Amino acid sequence: MVQPVLMKEIMNQTIIKASIPELTKFPYASVIILILSPVLRAFFDSLACRFVVHFTSNIRSALAGLIYKKVLSLNITSQSNINAGRLISFISADLNQIGISLPYVFQIFLVPVQIFVPFGFIINETLLGMRAVKLSGLEKIFIEHIEAARKMQLNDIFFQTFWIQMMISTMRVTPSFVNSATIATYIFSKNIPQSLFAVEVQPTSLFLIMESFPFSFLAFQMQDLGAVITSMIRIRDFLILPELVKTDKKLPTNSDLAVEITNCSFGWGDPPEIPMTSEEREELELEQAKRKQQIMEQKEKIDQNLQQTNFLENISTQSVNQGSLTMVIGSVGSGKSSLGSVLIGDIELMNNEEQVEQNIKQNNEQKYSKLQSEQTKGEVRIDGSIAYCPQTAWINNNTVRGNITFGSKFSKKKYNDVVRVCALEPDFQALAAGDMTAIGEKGVNLSGGQKARIQLARAVYSDRDIYILDDPLSAVDAHVGKILFEECINGRLKGKTRLLITNQLQYIDQADNIILLRDKQIFAQGSTENLKNNGISFEEFIIKGSQQSGKEDKSGFKDNKQQRSTINNDDKEDKLIEDEKDQIKKEQEENVAKKILTEEEQDTGAVTWGSYFDYLFTLVPKWAIFFYLFSLAIVEVVTSFESWWIGVIGIETRYPTMSYNWKIVIYVLIGVAILLLNYVFVLVQSFSNKRSCKIIHNDLLNHVMKAPNSFFETTPLGRIVNRFSGDIVSNDQQLLMIYNWVIS
Length: 744
Known about the structure:
Rossmann fold, three-stranded antiparallel sheet
């Protein structure tokens, strides 16, 4: 507010008092302060901006940390509703949007508007199954599906751009109308001479412009606030998903035991409530009103199915001793893998102490006496650190060595021994770059047996106290399985506590303890000799369990027979392995350049002019570039002409034949022209932005879909999804506005 006041003072000294020489004194102090005021304003604006940016960075970092921490604590049902694409969109799109928009939100507290949300789900699912898409020749079909979803978004982007630009144009022209009306009223009411126009009117005009300046950014601030709130709501919905119920770690009651489970029932936890839009909620309420009874009956059936399939009941272990080998055997669906998940905490203990006490408070009946509650409380006690190998191998987008060491300190002697006992040496010889060969997303360039052995090697290299191995032998042939069991599981890991989940019955005689599972309960447990003495036949147990569960699956028994006979034919197996090894080596040598992880390329320095022209060509066809730039120039020229015309009004010698009142009328008409030109240009911009968004997205999509398999094997999935989320969002929302500023 200093500038208008000082300008009026300077004009008074130099114009009004010029006719009285003795009163004329050049206002040096006012001029110096007027010159320094923009510098001081810039300095304090920079300090404020630095504080806001630092504050925003802290918020962004904190949210990123919360998201990563939340991922590691979600229960199974919550994980089923979250995919990699959604997680990446939180980090790339939402946090990026908060980082960009939050600094501007400090200026206002207004009701937000809804903004565009990236459609990462379709892109993510397509990229995850890219190998299958390409092998099936379905690229064109997937491109059509994605473009159809994108077309719906483009319509939203068009209307969003149109209304935002309309609001911006209205706010931009509003000061001109306010100035015109104020100046006309002021002049006609006071009958100010034209000679005093500059002294009386121009400072007032500056005051009005300064007062209207915050309103000119109202559209930006409303959009930014809406963007921040939308992103925060998405992140909040993720952060409130149900987590695993964590219990305090307790040591077994007997120091000889490594694992002790007592009277426990386990479940997956309550499924999370999936967020719905208002339209979806209205449709659901309407459907519930029509078919309330059917929905309730269906819900009861679903709840019953969940209770039947998701729980382990009355689980108690007796003799999982320190350093022992315990084999968990059971038919398909008996709960073998679930028992492994129990020990790593992925499945909740449904009758822990807190929940039992909660049941007692909710049910004040005598049957919930303290004595009985003590008997129904379940406890899981574990002594030692755990290494877990799930049935489906988890492979990171890294080198083979990186997947085995997995952040641990590299020891060559230890590493070589682990590779040997996991039978990976022949594979390293076949791979083009040995153990430094890059592994694609989810191990797409590895066989199932290779992934299983790399995962096992990772667990062995981690050097833990307890090893939970979920059927690691099923993914390899009998010859390699024999090596893994003798050299690794019962060799290097000898002395460690091992819980081996398997139906490989040829090894049961070497187990210290056997746990038999049926219908999600422990059917029997003890040593092999004791179970056989009790009349239990392991082959019949597995077959009978499969029949009772409605699955005529005798593959486990048949596989064991086949494996026993195959073990006696090692020479034949060796030949098959050698042939397979030669074939793998040949393929790897042909694709050696394709198996190295690619680094993400980034340009540094100033943006080239070619990039500006490339974007311009996406906005409008080449033949229309001149008209587009000309329309932009016309808007800027007319806007500048308005400021110049104010100076014309205050000088009598300029256009002396034109009356003072006509000059004021022309000033008002210029404001109307600016408004109309801005509205026309807004319409042009909206169509141009829609065209640009479509071209850039489709170009990116076609290049990705038509890329060879080697591209997806050497490029992390997150890097690709980031292009379709964060970068596409920036192109849809911000690039046009910034580009117009640059051109202006």
